[in-house]
Structures are given as structure tokens and as C-alpha cells.
Write a structure and sequence with these properties.
By secondary structure, this protein is an all-alpha fold. The protein is built from 3 helices and no strands. The model has no long low-confidence stretch (mean pLDDT 91).
Length: 70
Amino acid sequence: MFNDKEYLLKIVRTHMPFGKYKGRLLIDLPEGYIVWFAQQGFPKDELGKMLGFVYEIKLNGLEYLLNPLR
């Protein structure tokens, strides 16, 4: 899943569907919000999987790797 270019494109193009940051691209969500969400538990659906991936990317300071896909 994590080596799939289509999945990476989906992550950089998906908008948050609800909450304080509704409409913002997942990759552009503040790190603090992603960390809070991780502590609360991500949804058990595709959005949750994508948020988990964004969490790992931000936790490791790798956002720059997705910039060319924007």
C-alpha cells in the first residue's frame, strides 16, 4: 500500500471531510491535530488509514517527499 503511487496521490489530494479543518488537504493538517487524532484513535475506514499514513509522514519529518506529488 505505501509503495503505491496512486495511493500517495490520493493522500495528497484528499481533503478533511469534517471538523475544525474541514476542506484542508490531509497532508496540510497541523501536526498537533494529527497527533491528537492518533491519541484519540483514527477512524476505522479509509480516511483513518490515510490519516495514519500522514501521521507517520509528519512524525518522521518526511512531508517534503510528497511535495512533488502535489
